[in-house]
Design a protein that fits this description.
The complex is a heterodimer of chains A (about 400) and B (about 240).
Chain A (H helix, E strand, L loop, with lengths): L1 H14 L1 H37 L5 E6 L19 H9 L3 E16 L2 E10 L3 H4 L4 E4 L4 H6 L3 E4 L1 H8 L8 E4 L2 E9 L14 E5 H8 L10 E6 L5 H15 L10 E5 H44 L1 H9 L4 H38 L7 H27 L3 H6 L2
Parallel strand pairs in A: 3-8, 5-7
Antiparallel strand pairs in A: 1-9, 1-10, 2-3, 2-6, 2-9, 4-7, 5-8, 6-7
Chain B lengths: L5 E12 L2 E13 L4 E5 L6 H8 L7 E6 L2 E2 L5 H10 L1 E4 L11 H11 L4 H14 L15 H14 L4 E5 L7 H18 L2 E5 L3 H4 L4 E6 L2 E6 L11
The chains are: A alpha+beta (about 400), B alpha/beta (about 240).
The structure holds adenosine-5'-triphosphate and magnesium ion.
């Protein structure tokens, strides 16, 4: 029965190809838009989540200067206020697991005939874990390197690719601001940060080496920022409070005076970014769904026309024994067939569009099976929902009136 | 007394129109037994088609009783009426009423589809009836590709496919020439005598009415004659 009815639906669709195609077009565009939007949204979500995973957990960053409520950094030109001493004091707090001061800036790196401008950071051994880095090859900066201010460097993947190409960088000498450094380790790649920056475009050197030989400081022991890891997620509010108190005390700020530092809860920011990405992808999906509804209305419209045109056929069928539900099923199946056929093409269009957008905008797109299944489910539902009324109208026709219809 | 196939008592029918009710049938009483061959004649507008549609369960009377095989049709729901049309009644219309987009075997198999007969049996039976109508080689043709007489034979094959005990034909030869009409009437006669199928047909032509064994004449929505076909010519041109 279903087979025959599918055949008939196919016939009916084929009887007026242009009209069927135009009706399907609405569904194609709708489903295509949903698939593409979900793919783009999922891509954004995934890359945000990747960045968050690469960021380190329960993380704060302490920087100089106060912030406005909007999060804008103020007093850009002001003297740096946080120091290595602050970092050491923070590390002693009970709610803090580790604290890693960072100094640095941009420097020109030369190796043989290659040169590359990148960010060079002076860090302590704790930095590796706080910032969630992994060493892929070679060694990490040891305590002894820190104490002796040795000229060793651990480099990110982007730097390695640009300076060494296929060569093995370990043991090679590079020049940072003219000074020779031996590459002792290679960092595991992390990819993009939340702000889109390439995290692997980095060179890490011992903190003291950077202080003394690369970035001579006007202010003794000032650092660019301190990365702080709390002992646990639940300890984060406590850690934030303790740090604020400690730093105000260390910086001798009087009651009522503005902070000269800012503690940023990176984990909270990351969560917000993830939520924003989630919201965005839902919003995109919702907007795209509207076109599905429009497509559904198109199907309903054409099915109503079709029922009217085929009134006589309905009469003939009823005269030879079709029951109301047979007629209902026939037209419903036809509506669903149009809808699902449109959906199949729409899925392909959507995948194509998503890949194209990914190419053009250099963003990640992720086409999931669940979004395709969702597309089919919604298309079927739209077909049933918008096909029901016309099919019901058809089934309610009185046989004699349908037969007489000219 | 043999169980009647059709028993009609005090049957009235009026159409509700914008201009008010139009009475068409008045107090019709008619019995038809299994195996009869009845011709219905009468002037245009006398209510013959209206009556046939009620006989065929396509329309319902305004009042009165219609028993088909002893069952009061007025008490049946849509599904039961559909199944009567499917299993008991076969229709042959003046305008053939074939589905234009379906080929002949599909058209003939249609009643079997609604009777939930399996695909292969359906097509086998459809081809059998088409062959019986001498149209075996046109199984895959479309209705538009054959002549009117052939189309009417397809319609008869379709009516037969449901294995009906009653065939209702409203001016089945109205669109056909004399020769083709004769062929169609020979088919009806054979179905009536050889297969015992009850046939009720409406016609304007006395020659066609003569194939039947009983004549019912309608005038202004009333039965004015019920009996011999010998007087078919009388008032035929009215
Ligand atoms: N759907 C309808 N609505 C209103 N009036 C109708 C309808 N169908 C038929 N009539 C009227 O009922 C009367 C009987 O019509 P019917 O079709 O039964 O006549 P008939 O005997 O079959 O005529 P003919 O020989 O021309 O086919 C006519 O006066 C017609 O105008
Ligand atoms: Mg008539």
């Amino acid at each position: 029965m279903i087979g025959v009815m599918l055949g008939e639906a196919w016939h009916a669709m084929g009887a007026n190809r242009m009209r069927t195609f135009l009706t399907m077009l609405g569904m194609m565009i709708g489903v295509g838009a949903v698939i593409a939007m979900l793919a783009i949204g999922q891509g954004v979500k995934d890359s945000v989540n990747d960045s968050i995973a690469s960021m380190g957990s329960n993380l704060f960053i302490v920087v100089s200067g106060s912030t406005t409520s909007g999060g804008m950094r103020m007093g850009g030109g002001a003297a740096p206020t946080i120091t290595v001493g602050d970092a050491q004091a923070i590390a002693e707090l009970p709610s803090v697991r580790a604290s890693a001061p960072v100094i640095g800036g941009t420097a020109q790196i030369v190796h043989g005939s290659s040169n590359w401008s990148t960010s060079v950071s002076g860090v302590t051994p704790d930095y590796l874990e706080v910032a969630a880095w992994q060493i892929s090859r070679g060694a990490w900066i040891a305590d002894s390197d820190l104490r002796a201010a040795t000229r060793v460097a651990v480099i990110g993947k982007t730097v390695a690719d640009n300076l060494f190409g296929d060569e093995d960088p370990i043991g090679q000498t590079i020049r940072i601001k003219q000074s020779p450094f031996v590459v002792i380790g290679l960092l595991e790649a992390k990819g993009q940060a939340l702000d889109g920056r390439d995290q692997d475009d980095i060179i890490l050197v011992p903190l003291r080496t950077a202080q003394r030989q690369l970035f001579a400081q006007q202010f003794q022991n000032a650092v660019r920022n301190i990365m702080v890891q709390a002992v646990s997620a639940s300890a984060m509010p406590q850690a934030e409070k303790e740090m604020n108190e400690l730093l105000r005390q260390r910086h001798r700020l009087r009651e009522g005076a503005d902070d000269d530092f800012t503690v940023r809860n990176m984990t909270a920011m990351a969560k917000m970014a993830a939520q924003t990405a989630q919201l965005m992808s839902m919003l995109l999906g919702a907007i795209a769904s509207i076109s599905l509804i429009v497509g559904g209305v198109g199907i309903m419209n054409i099915m109503l026309v079709s029922v009217t045109e085929r009134t006589r056929e309905i009469g003939i069928r009823m005269a030879i024994g079709a029951r109301r539900r047979d007629i209902l099923a026939q037209f419903l199946l036809e509506a669903v067939s149009i809808s699902v056929a449109g959906c199949i093409i729409g899925v392909l269009l959507g995948i194509g569009a998503a890949l194209l957008v990914g190419q053009l905008m250099q963003t990640q797109v992720v086409i999931t099976l669940s979004s395709i299944l969702l597309g089919f489910a919604v298309a079927t539902a739209v077909g049933v929902f918008f096909g029901f009324y016309p099919a019901h109208q058809a089934s309610k026709l009185r046989p004699i009136e349908a037969l007489r219809y000219q | 007394m043999p169980a009647g196939l059709i028993q009609i008592r005090h049957l009235y029918k009026q159409y509700e129109t914008a201009a008010g009710p139009v009475p068409v049938l008045h107090d019709i009483a008619l019995d038809i037994d299994p195996g009869e061959f009845v011709a219905i004649m009468g002037p245009s507008g006398s209510g013959k088609s209206t009556f046939m549609n009620i006989l065929g369960c396509l329309d319902i009377p305004t009042s009165g009783q219609y028993l088909l095989r002893g069952k009061d049709v007025g008490t049946l729901d849509h599904d039961a009426l559909a199944s009567l049309r499917n299993q008991v009644i076969g229709f042959v219309f003046q305008g053939f009423n074939l589905l234009p987009r379906a080929n002949l075997e599909t058209n003939v198999a249609l009643p079997l589809l609604y009777a939930r007969v399996g695909r292969s049996e359906r097509l086998e039976r459809a081809r059998h009836y088409l062959q019986q109508m001498g149209l075996g080689k046109y199984c895959k043709s479309l209705p538009s590709q054959i002549s009117g007489g052939q189309q009417q034979r397809v319609a008869i094959a379709r009516a037969l496919a449901g294995n009906p005990s009653l065939i209702l034909a409203d001016e089945p030869t109205g669109n056909l020439d004399t020769q083709t009409s004769r062929e169609i009437m020979d088919i009806f006669t054979r179905l009536n005598t050889e297969e015992g199928i009850t046939i009720v047909l409406v016609t304007h032509e006395p020659d066609i009415a003569h194939y039947a064994r009983r004549l019912v004449r309608f005038v202004d929505g009333r039965v004015v004659h019920d009996g011999s076909v010998e007087i078919a010519h009388e008032g035929a041109m009215a």
